Amino acid sequence: MKKVAVVILNYNGAEMLMRFLPLVVDYSPEAEVVVADNASTDNSVEVMKERFPAVRLLQLDSNYGFAGGYNKALAQVEAEYYVLLNSDVEVTPGWLSPLLEFMEFNDTAVACQPKILDYKRKTHFEYAGAAGGFIDYYGYPYCRGRVFNTVEADSGQYNDVHPLFWATGAAMFVRSKAYWSAGGLDEGFFAHMEEIDLCWRFLARGSRIYAVPQSTVYHVGGATLDKGNPQKTFLNFRNNLLLLYKNLPESELRRTMRVRTLLDYIAAVKFLVAGDLGHFKAVLRARSEFKRLKPQYKAVREANMAACVVENIPERKNFSLLWQYYARGKRTFTSIKEK
Prior knowledge:
Helix content is about 40%, strand content about 20%. By secondary structure, it is α/β, with parallel strands linked by helices. The strands form three sheets. Strands 1, 2, 3, 4, 5, 6, 7, 12, 13 and 14 form a ten-stranded mixed beta sheet that branches. A two-stranded antiparallel sheet has the order 8-9. A hairpin with a 2-residue loop joins strand 10 and strand 11. Helix 7 (about 230-245) packs parallel to helix 9 (about 275-295) and helix 8 (about 250-275) packs antiparallel against helix 9 (about 275-295). The protein is globular. The model has no long low-confidence stretch (mean pLDDT about 95).
């Protein structure tokens, strides 16, 4: 058994597998490479069997989404460390070594991520993970290298190892025992925000998460749902509300959720005024679905609160990102990282 397993969850990504899997195999000698297929309807399985017969293939019987797909796949993988890697990521020579070395010598680190640059514009950070993630007081995520839609060029400004609030699910290196001890990814999320929820649980239990930019990969991004898809808006809004409800300390819960209600309806009106009826409906549907699901998550919240040993997590910033970005014009991580 190898110490590291790189697990790629695939759904209708045959073209991405043909393009990127050979590099994962060539540049990951420390790891077992596994492809878990989420019941693809394209020729992904045929591509795996014909072109990559030496790569372990796990065939899931349905599309369980990102969260459920990974939970079911990882339950079949034995390794000290998992790497959750998107199928549309181009890895680089030696990409795993800095991540593994960092984790081996930092016992409190439960997860880390590489620097993630844009495959289509390799001088810039990639939207989904950049150089590591944070959230503001009201649950809005942002990254070193990306704040809302402002994406920075990489000039080495984030080349330091740095503690994070969340490591992206596009390329997350994580201790397997910690993954299961925290409950794995929340399958109710299906897709989007699930890694932030998992990382919040890690931090609340006293572990740490880091960016290790000595490792670099390139991410295509938007391979499943692009940013303009209302379904992505629905999942992002609904899941963000769920992760807040699940993880916020009791002392903050009511006030923060009241403010988020106001901000969500402002966002919905903004979509409506702009003529984006699909996104307007997506926000309203997300609010409605959160209200419906909330009673089901009461026990989950109680379990999270019982396991919590750290309430004031430094990487959860005590300011409004919306205010910093739109009112104060702070568009980069460096300009807004301190209140």
